[in-house]
Write the structure tokens for this entry.
Amino acid sequence: MGFARACSVALVGVEGVVVEVQADLEPGVAAFTLVGLPDKSLTESRDRVRAAVVNSGAEWPQKKLTVGLSPASVPKGGSGFDLAVACAVLGASERVDARAIADLVLIGELGLDGRVRPVRGVLPAVLAAAEAGYRQVVVPEQTAGEAALVPGISVLGVRSLRQLIAVLNDEPVPAEEPPSDGPDPMLAGLMLPGTGVGTGLAAGPHGHPDLADVAGQHLARTALEIAAAGGHHLLLSGPPGAGKTMLAERLAGVLPPLTRRESLEVTAVHSVAGMLPPGQPLVRSAPYCAPHHSATMPALVGGGNGLPRPGAVSLAHRGVLFLDEAPEFTVKALDALRQPLESGHVVIARSGGVVRLPARFLMVLAANPCPCGRHSAQGGGCECPPAVIRRYQARLSGPLLDRVDLRVRVDPVHRADLMGQGGRGESSTTVADRVQQARRRAADRLCDTPWTVNSEIPGHELRTRWPIEPGALTGPERDMERGLLTARGLDRVLRVAWTVADLAGRDRPEPQDVDLALELRTGVPRGAAVPTGGGPR
């Protein structure tokens, strides 16, 4: 009778749970039983592991074999347990030293020929192992760079089970054939089909598009800069062809680079979702996610069969979520965004368990004024009935819009601006420098708090801990008394005013900063000066 154990990790959303893989051999009819709440793909690992062990030159034990996955109450799925199951079986049959694998965390899928194939979610799995106190992990060679991002972890990247057996037995490591010059079929499991441009990491080889390509639209450019500096959500409304999509596509290019902690968070989400490009183990820039308006509620907030998977709000974590043609989304899907907009995460309950996914993103909505898009446009010739226009605009509910700090009307571009007669606008690099300076001012002010940008500060804290110029809130208070502004709206105006002051280099907001914030909130001109060359002054 033989017994051995190894460790692997089960992913629940983007969080991992260390699983002990136990193998027990007893005399009896040869059989392989796998217990511990495995799903279909994990149950099939019995055949993969048996073939991989035999083809790696080891003898398969002809005894009654039971493999248990503990804790048994945690649902387990995927092919990432193959390597741990194989090593536990080899340890129980004394092909390898059982003590050498007892404290190893092994993650990887096995091919029938014994090659170790990469799997998704290696980074969050290794993070979970590190938090549990483990210090040695074995992963496929292709994902060793991703696993090495976790500090304090010794990573061994292997190409085949044969190599791992040799390492564990202190034998000469056999040479494996390197990948051919063509596409590596071993990388096929890292990215899901259809997870390319526009679904998460949209920046191409030339980076994000330049803001200087946008002609005119001075107020919208100012709102874009304020949104990036303070993390404020933005609504762009206007007729087709005015430049709403161009502006939104350039927002991610003016956001500051991700910090080390933020990079790990974003990389973990994209690794689980199968969207981490091979050869790019760490995401360093803000992601940009633009789902189609036919996206369902699970596609936006996360879901699917069994345990939920990350949706668009999680793929846009620490970046930009752009909803073009926002009124064309289903009302149910749009209203599902209200909770993550406030909390920065989404909690999804399913019969298989409850998953908490990160979702702190900057939302940009783009909307036409009516179904034909020509309502209120000069010479537009809109023929939509008033009831149709009201119904179309009501698809963006009041509670959702109340969480949007900036609402800007994007009018058609003038001929002079389009032909360059009004001068070329500032580049993304210039605007990004001002945004980083504003964020540094906010970070210095918030250094002893759990918040990093103005949009995260609770209203009570903002009103009591950081007072503004006396009398600066006269306009917002008057609108609140008239019912034109809610209590949440007043707090959001105050947050935007602080961001305007940070961009202008002021220690606290002045009346003109509040006026600009209120104008961007309500769309009603307040006499605030909007510069033509850049951000607030």
Notes: The chain has a mean pLDDT of 88. Residues 44 and 79 are 9 Å apart (CA to CA). The chain has three domains: 3-175, 211-427, 457-530.
